[in-house]
Specification:
This protein folds into three domains: 151 residues, Rossmann fold (3-Layer(aba) Sandwich); 133 residues, Rossmann fold (3-Layer(aba) Sandwich), CATH 3.40.50; 92 residues, Winged helix-like DNA-binding domain superfamily/Winged helix DNA-binding domain (Arc Repressor Mutant, subunit A, Orthogonal Bundle), CATH 1.10.10. It is of the alpha/beta class.
Length: 392
């Protein structure tokens, strides 16, 4: 199914231009004036809250939903295969997945047997959440990688003699074909346990709108907390005929903020540089955005008696934070990149979001709204027959 591209005048479309938040006139929050897209589903509200409290405007667009497999025959079959004989190694990749697996097993009357089986195996936990879930049922992990990365888990296992060994791999949302193939090449019998599957959200509309906003640079960052979410956003962009434009935006003006290296994988394969915290945690991701986003998306200028701080989607004029509509904001960003330089109407026309490139009157309208938003018409000068410049 193909959807239409964003309408020509995105600034007047409520689905593409996020509503302007009520901004404190003297806001000092570090993310005030910045807009962040959040693609998380299960913990999206938590991440949105962390960012909102730091002043950001959040566009929530869950890219995936978890489909539990409590009644799925594949999970039941995998569980029975685990119980059919001794298991030497068990890889626990996620806490929520491990917990869900045990809950489903209890519903089938297999919970005690599964716990006993895991207790006799060497259990490898990918990270602290997996360790916590393991310990919560009275078990203990035998090893956990410092990097919290699957490749390190694989290297640890391949250092052992896996010939004739049965290895359980708890999946979470997506297959792990490379890891499973490497274990089998090492001589192991691998049992894949598909605890959850990822699917598109029931209503993909918010995700489509986020793609449009990203392409138009009306968000400053998109936060990803899982690789499937990144993949689904790229797929939606392809359906919309905007895959190339989305990748270009994420390679350029819009920061791709990922909770960890695994999440960043699908984006980095496309040459998209990602921002990642040192620890793969939501709180750490929010702190990384606080530390990095203002520096990447802020231009500071002094114009006469005025001090301007051009942020992602707003401007601070003499400590007063003012939200601007998308088109005036785009004009201001262009002028601020070359303060004092005259930009022609033709140049400005090319950067107006959603413009078809032929409506010359759109530039005059955007400049007029920019002057009103700044509160001093003299900040943006008209240079007769040439264009406009910031009066630096």
């Amino acid at each position: 199914m193909t959807t239409s591209p964003p309408p020509a005048d995105a600034s007047s479309d409520p689905h593409l231009a996020p509503p302007l938040a009520s901004l404190d006139a003297h806001s000092t929050e570090p993310l005030a004036g910045f807009t962040v897209g959040v693609t998380a589903a299960r913990r999206g509200e938590e991440l949105a809250g962390l960012l909102t409290r730091r002043g950001a405007r959040v566009v929530s667009a869950p890219a995936i939903r978890l489909v539990p497999l409590a009644d799925d025959s594949d999970l039941l079959s995998a569980t029975r295969a685990c119980l059919a004989g001794p298991v030497q190694y068990a890889l626990v990749t996620t806490g929520v997945g491990f917990t869900g697996w045990l809950e489903a097993a209890r519903g089938w009357g297999l919970g005690a047997a599964l716990t006993t089986m895991l207790g006799s195996a060497k259990v490898l936990a990918r990270g602290p959440k997996a360790r916590g879930a393991i310990r919560a049922v009275g078990l203990a992990e035998d090893w956990s990688p410092d990097s919290e990365a699957l490749p390190e888990m694989l290297d640890h296992l391949l250092a052992a003699d896996l010939r004739g060994q049965r290895v359980v791999v708890q999946l979470h949302g997506e297959p792990l074909p490379d890891l499973v193939a490497a274990l089998r090449e090492g001589g192991a019998t691998v049992i894949e346990v598909p605890v959850y599957r990822w699917r598109l959200p029931v209503d993909p509309g918010p995700l489509r709108r986020l793609v449009g906003l990203t392409v138009l640079r009306q968000v400053d960052a998109v936060a990803f907390t899982s690789a499937p979410a990144a993949i689904r956003m790229l797929e939606i962009a392809t359906e919309m005929g905007q895959h190339r434009e989305l990748v270009a935006a994420l390679r350029g003006d819009v920061v791709a903020a990922c909770v960890g290296a695994v999440t960043a994988g699908p984006l980095e394969e496309l040459g998209i540089a990602t921002m990642q915290p040192a620890r793969a945690r939501l709180g750490a991701l929010a702190r990384e955005l606080v530390a990095e986003l203002p520096g990447r998306r802020t231009v500071r200028l002094s114009i006469g008696e005025h001090r301007l701080e051009v942020r992602g989607q707003a401007v601070v004029v003499n400590e007063s934070l003012r939200a601007l509509p998308p088109r005036p904001m785009a004009v201001l960003r262009a002028l601020a990149r070359s303060p004092g330089r005259v930009l022609s109407r033709t140049e400005l026309l090319q950067i107006l979001p959603g413009n078809n490139g032929t409506d010359g009157h759109a530039v005059e309208m955007a400049v007029a709204r920019l002057r009103t938003g700044l509160g001093d018409a003299q900040l943006v000068r008209t240079v007769v027959k040439r264009g406009y410049r910031l009066d630096c």
